[in-house]
Specification:
By secondary structure, the chain is an alpha/beta fold. The protein has three domains: 95 residues, 3-Layer(aba) Sandwich (D-Maltodextrin-Binding Protein, domain 2); 74 residues, Periplasmic binding protein-like II (D-Maltodextrin-Binding Protein, domain 2); 86 residues, ACT domain (Alpha-Beta Plaits). Helices cover 29% and strands 35% of the residues. The protein is built from nine helices and 16 strands. The longest helix is centred in the first third of the chain and has 13 residues.
Amino acid sequence: MRVAFLGPVGTYGEQAAHRLAELEGWQSPELLPQQGIRAVVQALATGQADAAVVPVENSVEGGVTAALDALWEQPDLTVARALVLPIRHALVGSGPIEAVSEVLSHPQALAQCSQWLETQLPAALQLPTSSTAEAARLVRGSRFRAAVASTEAAREHGLEVLAYPINDVAGNCTRFLLLRRGERLMQGALASLAFSLHANHPGALLEALVCIQRRDLNMSRIESRPSKREMGEYIFFVDLELAEDEGEAALQGVLDDLAPLCEHLALFGAYPITTDV
């Protein structure tokens, strides 16, 4: 199995890829690091990879918009499994913490440590990178640069752990999705779907949400993203918790009820979810 993930080596995405491969029972998967979330999804869509692992939601900073947009744009992909992984950030580098004047990391990681950085390194310039492990790679050998990354990334790139943990919220965790090509299943603990409405009028979204309430399903997440076509037009991403015995019938009922209300309606699949927190 070839599994694409947000690289380079040492990212939380790599940790998630190893764990998801273990849950799937894959022996010795070939992990393919990619530069950017869109590249991860594209590797799967074009057949360069058999599966892809992407972060979709963080408990502190919310949805990962690049992953949501990529899912919407790729109708041939399905969510096969989800993993909730604890995120414990460290400040890593090659020099003393007192000399640090620049801190590099993925924008989500910088945001998840914003209070700590403001308190401990208020004068340091914060610079975004494509991933936490890429930040670790870039600061290697520098005395004035440090990275927000995992302790695994520090080991991989020969860096010292200057402070740990530094995330503002102790329970910080990220949900990762395992994506595959093929049929979108209707059975699982969680189902993810997205839709855009025919018209923007008072009560339009409420009408759509009633379709979910009518089937007595709990909506564990709703998030909107601009359609990128015109101002005020949105795509709504929704996660539904499914009962083990009647989940498929209830999900099909929601889709049937939503269809007449939606310009576009996409089911990303129903799937199991594992929490390692």
